Amino acid sequence: MRPWVLFFLGGGGAGGVGRNNNPPAAAGVGGGVRAPPAAFPAFIMNEKAAEAIITLFKSGYTCDPDPPYPGGLQGFEQDLKQMFSQYFDPAHVEAEFALPTDFQEFLLAIDGSFYKRNWASVFAMESILSNTKYQLKLWEPEGEPHLMWIEVGNWSDKHQLIMCVNRSDAYFGKVLDLHDDHPYCNENFDPDEEWPGIYSYLECPN
Predict the structure, then answer these.
(1) Are 4 and 35 in contact (CB under 8 A)?
(2) Terminal CA-to-CA distance of the chain, rounded, Å?
(3) DSSP secondary structure of 133-193
(4) pTM above 0.85, yes or no
(5) 32-41, 44-53, 175-184, 196-205 — which one is most confidently predicted on average?
(6) How confident is the prediction for the chain on average, in pLDDT?
(7) CB atoms within 10 A of CB 150
(8) Mean pLDDT of the 9-16 span
């Protein structure tokens, strides 16, 4: 785990993260959050992201830290666009691809993927890329429709948590729970459950 620890609102009270710019005291929950830059006063974690991380820990998840992603969030977005451009029209990918703001906040806050032993996962950048790549290779989608989906987690047996990253589509930013199914193989896919965004799902993760 990285040496920085999760801290709560008000310098140690319960409820969130980073309301002020003062360096925090350790709060007893370590790992899972991105280490702040050297100029710590400039680092304020998004409060909803902090609450989501706390909920994951309280729900029995642990974090498996990843090395910093090459190029950070921008590098991650470029790698996703390059991967999607192998299957869809590159001009369409460039025009349509976007990561929702709330998901960007969450990715910037976490230190790695979260796992609940033999049950569920919530992915960080590296795992999102590798699992999304696997689905593209498995189904080899082509042509219409040009919806792009990333896998943001999974749970139990063959339940995938996917998110649409087409900025103009009604599914944009939503988290869908699909069981042994995927939009790339079934245009009439039927989610078991649906959430309007990552924070809604993480209010009560599997």
Answers:
(1) yes
(2) 23
(3) HHHHHHH---SS----EEEEEEETTTEEEEEE-BTTSTTBT-EEEEES--TTT-TT---SE
(4) no
(5) 196-205
(6) 81
(7) 22
(8) 36
Please report the pLDDT score of residue 86 as a whole number: 92
Identity of the residue numbered 145: P
Beta-carbon-side half-sphere exposure of residue 178 (alpha carbons within 13 Å) = 24
Tell me if the bond preceding 145 is cis, omega within 30° of 0.
yes
pLDDT above 90 for 28: no
**How is residue 74 written in tokens?**
């921008």
Instruction: Extract the tokens encoding 159.
Output: 């339940």
* Tokens, residue 76: 């991650």
Lowest mean pLDDT among 69-83, 88-102, 132-146: 132-146
- Angle at 63 (CA atoms; ends 83, 40), nearest 5 degrees: 90
Q: Rounded distance, CA 60 to CA 56, Å?
A: 7
C-alpha distance from residue 70 to each of 45, 56, 192 (Å): 21, 25, 35
Question: Which residues lie below 8 Å from residue 118, measured CB to CB, with a gap of 6+?
Answer: none
Angle at 44 between CA 40 and CA 46, to 5 degrees: 155
